[in-house]
């Protein structure tokens, strides 16, 4: 399994769609800020629109996908309008979502809106992403599969089909992975985990740590994996990340531990051992430094774990 696949698989990412918007004329939609770990997205299937999020302004067209990895508040509006104005709409439950239509017979804008749920135990990956991710599929052979997925998600979500929620969940995971792959191939990451993973010199060591974070990693071992001297490895690592190599190891261990605490009924001691900690107390101290609470408190605060 390659490193990107390992990261996405470990996320236990869940996806959902909630709005199908079909508008005409002048319109606008305001989205409030979301909690960390919820990545809101909009896929434009037809028509044109304008996006505003802080200082970011983007013109959108059919085939565009826009994500908000840090839950930023934003406004989407018709390309013709220049102010956010509320226009009359109708709302109707349809399949797995709510259809929002402007009060016109014809619609020239079609947009599907949803969320990726990653939870708070994936901050390391999300830190690599900008406030707004915009991918345009128009005229791009490398985005053909992404556009096909977008259309399939609309089909599955807009009708009461058997098994649609499960299909949408799987399609969401595939879509998120493809977006990351496209950005990595474009060299869009300049800092953070994904920048390290796409750097030819750093990738061997980073991939190894992602694959086995519980190993007894040292700076020397990581440098050996990348066939670099200890000093060169540390210097190049610092150019791509604010954390140290050993901080990365700890963060990956903690994110793995948080997922196991949430998703399984394993004992805290066994989880600590599986994440590279020889004693219960060492694991507890490391976890509390990272998340500000004990492993037991994290488990109580999370969702009911699944049997394992």
Automatic annotation (TrEMBL):
Coiled-coil residue spans: none
HTH araC/xylS-type domain ranges (all copies): 203-301
PROSITE patterns, per the entry: HTH_ARAC_FAMILY_2
UniProt keyword annotation of Transcription present: yes
Pfam name, any one: HTH_18
SUPFAM superfamilies, sorted: Homeodomain-like (SSF46689), RmlC-like cupins (SSF51182)
Keywords, alphabetical: DNA-binding, Transcription, Transcription regulation
GO molecular-function term, one example from the UniProt record: DNA-binding transcription factor activity
PANTHER family, sorted: ARAC FAMILY TRANSCRIPTIONAL REGULATOR (PTHR46796:SF7), HTH-TYPE TRANSCRIPTIONAL ACTIVATOR RHAS-RELATED (PTHR46796)
Protein name (database record): AraC family transcriptional regulator, activator of mtrCDE
Highest classification ranks of the organism: Bacteria, Pseudomonadati, Pseudomonadota, Gammaproteobacteria, Lysobacterales
